[in-house]
UniProtKB/TrEMBL annotation:
Domain Helicase C-terminal: from-to ranges: 398-543
Record key words, sorted: ATP-binding, Helicase, Hydrolase, Nucleotide-binding
UniProt cross-references to Pfam families, sorted A to Z: Helicase_C (PF00271), PLDc_2 (PF13091), ResIII (PF04851)
InterPro entries according to UniProt: ATP-dep_Helicase, Helicase/UvrB_N, Helicase_ATP-bd, Helicase_C-like, P-loop_NTPase, PLD-like_dom
Protein's name in the database: DEAD/DEAH box helicase family protein
PANTHER family, sorted: ATP-DEPENDENT HELICASE LHR-RELATED-RELATED, HELICASE
Residue ranges of every copy of the Helicase ATP-binding domain listed in the record: 195-343
Length: 778
């Protein structure tokens, strides 16, 4: 018969085959890589797959077993067993396909193992057979044999690979694939990370545009740092699994596990954790449990759950990652990394360095009337939005715009799964080769669709969310934005899906539908901000819309149709607030949550002026109606205490570090032993060389090695004692914030228990702002 690979791919993707059994003597990563997409698509549609191999002679690669273990953890319908008997040879090569609906079964038997040469290019003899009852029985006997052991982490840990010399009679087949190497821009960032650690920083932030490989960077850096244990934190399980797959390619034999709502493997060397699950179970981990922590999509780290997690852990190094410029996604996050921006390569810089392709952006008028669609928490009501966009008129407008400007391979972002299906059917009826890809049962196979898009069998993939982050499709040359988004992060992620360099394209075409709602002002604001140090004002955005000059690199262009420009100008004129009020309101509309004080500060606004006018940052936000119910309750109950933290006199960073240490240890409201606060404060100072420089070197030439009792005396004398002194307006009810009672440092304020967590987060926000302001002034 022909090469085995296309035969297996065809059957793995045939819907009628819902049970698949594979028995091979050994498995190489080279062969598994060829079938991982078809196998994943089969699992995604609900097929049950059993794979049986052997450790005979150690010829199966441990890296291949590890990859299969990962896949089996992602899909319960995949089972893998290893026939363990070094005294018995194991040579079956059979691929069996069954149908539970009574349709024809099929089998392929012969000489091909699961290797590249066995599947694609080697001289192999395989026979396709129809009657497979006996093969099914034989497979079942082997599968249930006591020597067939379920694949597990322990089995892989004790696996003995083949020696360097293997007798020639044995079919060794493929040379191991070489591991991935950093791209030039990643290598540059890796050097910067090494340098920042050498300078004494224990945290750092990296900003890399979508398409430049920030997850790969994290994997390479964890590997080069020789971290004993690492923790990777994200907010979605999908991101965790994609990131695990990247780390697996860099470190193929390292134990990796998830810590999510569904799976908990806290003892793996690298743990990929959902921030929500981690926050709920934080007490199960020691503060020094991990010596390297990665926070992916770091713009989410302002959330209370992230702060709770990051305050708990004390890693040797913390790496924050984001693809979005820090002035847009949360500049306060730099404070969590000691204001240490280690490496920055945004979209514009990536284009200038030919790491990303230039783009031509077309803002075209939407046919949808967005005014009657309910707008809640920074987004349109999902059901009302789906109804509004699923019309023949809008689909026809999308088809006409696409046909007039499209390239060869288009990725279209839709509102919902049903909307993606609706658009695919509309385009398909007009002769366009397309597919709808999402996480629902009506989705086309994901990996098959990507392959078809690459080789030209498909022209368009209509997708929902799953292509926002992580999935790499370099050949895409057209992006069709059919869903409104109020998030600059998602907007840039969708844009970035098509910016990867490919031999099949010179530039990316972006077709974006712009509607009659103020949230659509986000798009030109983001595009203009790509080339600016500060967030652009509304007047600057309007000027760019009029002139068409967004300051982008050669080869890039932004074109808004005149009707769109006029509409956006009318929407912008509805704003009557001054600069910081406009910033806070637009941030809320665009992001669905209010900005923090440090975000406003780094965006160039005078936070102190707003605070002075309204007697505090949070009272200012209350006046704008931007606080949630819990924050509002904290302001009502403890507004004067918050104001005291906001105005406490500072000549050095010591007081701010003291309060940050209390928050870190969870003792802000209960009080702390003075020695404990001194020790945590010392760790925080050592983690940030800018703060550590304020410690007198003559008195403490080796701060880390100074005996704790001596350091505690110094810390008690300076910030702690001064925090117990009345400072007039800065103290609630004329009383200092804290008092010293023996060896304890105690608060003079009380907070209701049900408001405690929110109070801590709000004080933390104020302290991070004050540290940022203090350090900039220095």
């Amino acid at each position: 018969m022909r090469l085995l690979l296309p035969e297996l791919t065809l059957r793995l993707r045939q819907p009628e085959f819902d049970r698949i059994d594979i028995a091979v003597s050994f498995i190489k990563s080279s062969g598994l890589n060829l079938l991982i997409g078809p196998i994943s698509d089969a699992l995604q549609r609900g097929a049950r797959i059993r794979i049986l191999t052997t450790d005979y002679l150690g010829l199966t690669e441990a890296t291949a077993l590890t990859r299969l273990l990962d896949l089996s953890e992602d899909h319960a319908s995949l089972e893998v067993r290893v026939f363990h008997d070094r005294e018995v040879s194991f040579h079956p090569k059979a691929y069996l396909f069954y149908s539970s609906t009574g349709k024809a079964d099929a089998a392929i038997v012969g000489s091909s193992n699961l290797t590249k040469s066995g599947l694609d290019g080697g001289i192999e003899w395989n026979l396709r057979v129809g009657a497979i009852d006996e093969l099914r029985t034989r497979f079942s006997e082997l599968w249930h044999d006591d020597r067939s052991l379920p694949l597990s982490e322990d089995l892989i840990d004790t696996y003995e690979p083949a020696p360097a010399y293997v007798p020639g009679i044995i079919d060794v087949a493929d040379e191991p694939d070489g591991g991935p190497e950093p791209r030039p821009i990643q290598a540059e960032a890796l050097k910067a990370l090494e340098q920042t650690r050498a300078e004494g920083f224990r945290a750092g932030m990296v900003t890399m545009a979508t398409g430049l490989g920030k997850t790969w960077l994290a994997a390479f850096d964890v590997a080069q740092s020789s971290a004993e244990r690492a923790l990777f934190i994200a907010h979605r399980d999908e991101i965790l699994r994609q990131s695990r797959d990247v780390f697996r390619q860099v470190m193929p034999e390292v134990s990796m596990g998830f810590y999510t709502g569904a799976e908990k493997s806290p003892d793996a060397r690298i743990v990929f954790a959902s921030v929500q699950t981690l926050a709920r179970n934080i007490g199960r981990f020691a503060p020094d449990e991990f010596d390297y922590i990665v926070v992916d999509e770091f713009h989410h780290a302002a959330a209370v759950s992230y702060r709770k997690v990051l305050d708990h852990f004390s890693p040797k190094f913390l790496l924050g990652l984001t693809a979005t410029p820090e002035r847009m996604d949360g500049a306060d996050l730099l404070a969590l990394c000691a204001d240490n921006l280690v490496f920055h390569c945004d979209l514009v810089e990536g284009i200038k360095r030919n790491e990303l392709v230039p783009f031509q952006y077309w803002g075209v008028p939407d046919t949808v009337d967005f005014e009657p669609i309910p707008w809640r928490n920074g987004r349109f009501d999902p059901e009302a939005l789906e109804t509004a966009v699923e019309t023949q008129e809008r689909a026809q407008a999308a088809f006409d715009e696409w046909r007039s400007r499209c390239g060869s391979r288009t990725l279209a972002f839709c509102v919902t799964k049903h909307h993606a299906d609706f658009m695919a059917e509309f385009f398909r009826a007009r002769g366009v080769r397309c597919a709808s890809v999402h996480s629902g049962p009506t989705s086309a196979p994901r990996f098959e669709s990507i392959e078809a898009l690459r080789d030209g069998r498909l022209q368009v993939i209509f997708a929902v969310d799953i292509f926002n982050e992580g999935l790499d499709v370099p050949d895409v040359d057209t992006i069709l934005m059919l869903r409104p988004t109020a998030s600059p992060v998602i907007f840039l992620q969708q844009l970035g899906r098509g910016l990867r360099v490919s031999s099949n394209k010179e530039r990316l075409t972006v077709i974006d539908f712009i509607g009659n709602h103020r949230s659509f002002l986000l798009k030109p604001r983001v595009l203009l901000s790509l080339t600016r140090a500060e967030s652009p004002t509304t007047m600057q955005v309007l000027a760019a819309l009029e002139s068409g000059d967004f300051g982008l690199p050669p080869g890039c262009a932004v074109n808004y149709e005149l009707t769109v420009v006029d509409m956006l100008k009318r929407l912008a004129r509805t704003t009557t607030y001054d600069a910081i009020e406009e910033y806070c309101r637009s941030h809320y509309e665009e992001e669905g949550h209010r900005p923090t004080a440090v975000q406003a500060f780094h965006a160039g606004h005078d936070v102190a002026r707003a605070c002075g006018k309204h007697e505090g940052w949070f009272r200012f936000l209350r006046a704008l109606d931007l606080l949630d119910d819990t924050e509002l309750a904290v302001v009502e109950e403890c507004g004067d205490v918050l104001r005291a933290f906001e105005t406490e006199d500072t000549n050095k960073c010591y007081k701010l570090v003291t309060i940050r240490a209390l928050i870190h240890d969870g003792t802000l409201r209960a009080g702390s032993e003075i020695a404990a606060n001194a020790e945590t404060s010392r760790k925080l100072l050592l983690a940030d060389p800018r703060l550590a420089r304020e410690i007198p070197e003559r008195e403490f030439p080796d701060l880390a090695g100074t005996p704790l009792d001596r350091w505690t005396r110094y810390w008690r004398k300076w910030p702690l004692t001064h925090l117990t002194k009345h400072k007039g307006k800065s103290s609630p009810d004329g009383v200092a914030l804290f008092r010293i009672d023996g060896d304890m440092f105690l608060p003079n304020f009380a907070v209701p228990d049900y408001l405690g967590e929110a109070f801590d987060a709000m004080v933390s926000e104020l302290i991070e702002y004050r540290l940022a302001f203090y350090l900039r002034a220095k």
